[in-house]
Amino acid sequence: MFAGHFGLAAAVKSKAPQIPLWALMLSTQLLDVVFIPFLLTGKETMEPISGETGYGANMIHADYTHSLIGALFIAMIAGWGAWRLWGRRGGVITLSVVFSHWILDLLVHRSDLPILPENFGNLPLLGFGLWKYPVISITLEIILLVSGIILYYRSFSRINEHRQGRRWVIASTVLMGFMFLMAIATDVFNLSLD
Q: Transmembrane stretches, by residue range (predicted)?
């Protein structure tokens, strides 16, 4: 799930206007952003699953960034930073949005999410595996995206009722919708820049 995380950011923005949309978008993807240096250094890996292509066709070994405790730790750091910038409510919202990434990944990932970093104690790996059912997981992402876009539009069209503001809301909603459409396409068709 990549695009669905962004839909959540748009939905949260409709209820938390004090937090910039860029911060919410980054928050929804922060675990993956932190994952990149771990991936580049070989501490975490992604491997194609033999015989599978398309949606969710990689086995992800994100034993630090996507462990339950690692995700909570990253969320707490982000929440603390947001609290300093946007107050207590902003901190709690940001912490929740960052951690929501792990919750949504739990739904779609195969059993590859550890509880403790580096799967300390060899505990069972978590993941409900909706990626094995592309129609269900894609539908879930589309629901998140469409709901987020609708909530975002409805919230900000009420705030900006004058003509100039309304145009801005429509333009930003259309742009967001297009970006989300491209994000879901990369998920569904497993597109890359290679």
A: 21-40, 64-83, 90-110, 130-153, 165-185
The whole model's pTM is what?
Answer: 0.81
Q: How far apart are CA 5 and CA 35, in angstroms?
A: 15
State pLDDT tens for residues 99-136: 999 999 999 888 999 999 999 999 999 999 888 888 88
Judge whether 109 lies within some domain: yes
**Dihedral-angle region of residue 12 (phi above 0 means left; psi in -120 to 50 means alpha; beta otherwise):** alpha
Strands 58-61 and 45-48 turn out to be: antiparallel
Q: Does any domain span residue 194? A: no
Cα 190 to the center of its chain, rounded Å: 17
**What is the number of domains present in the chain?**
1
Residue 10 domain boundaries: 3-189
